[in-house]
Sequence to fold (260 residues):
Amino acid sequence: MTIVVELEGLEVFGRHGVLEGERERGQRFLYDVRLQVSDAVLSDRIEDAVDYREVADCVREVSDARAYSLIEALAAAVAGAIVERFPVEQARVRVRKPDVDLPVEFSAATVERRGGWAASRYVGAGAVIVDREGRVLLVRHTYGRLNWELPGGLSEPGESFAETAVREVREETGLEAVPERLTGIYYSPESDAHHFVFRCAVGEDAAPAPASPEISECGWWPEDALPRPISDFTVRRIRDALAGATPELPQAVPPRSWLE
Fold:
């Protein structure tokens, strides 16, 4: 059974566009959001469903966080935030620009992102990469809290967890990583999510650069001077990896708190 929930025509004012005038005056953008969810919603309990109000708030939050030149990048950022925040199997986000200065009804861009798999349970992987000076590679998100994070994300069908980490490093930083060892297996009861962390290596002269519209910055940071905002979960994964942890069983983690 496939269950799809939709939000059509969510209007949000934003200051996005290539032209300076578009950013200065702002304009309305229409969002069409299509979410594939699990059959858990058949319980008829809001606790098992995706709250449309929270999805709408997520869209507004991403739009307000920064200005985008391209609606393609804006749609990708919204889709990325949704699959990270909500228990969805797939998110399809269409952004329409109805007031475009062209003889057309509107311009639009559509992005699809896979969410968790295995009945919408989240399973993902991240990479801890350290340079010759002992600094850790971090990326900064363009959505949500605009936080710093390890390169990583949700697993896709047909790939191992180590392959997930390698793909995410490539997609977010442009670097080719080689997994060396597993440093952490974590379980979050709050989101029913498992997360695998791998210590990875890249070339000595590797120069990371944002390779995704979901990433605004990449940088190397010492363990004792990590940037803000960052979650306590990210700090824990970094410290476990640098301490040489060799996990045998998943470690339960509490709800995230944020260092601002």
Observations:
- The CA atoms of residues 187 and 194 lie 5 Å apart.
- The longest helix spans residues 71-85.
- The mean pLDDT is 90.
- The chain has two domains: 3-114, 122-259.
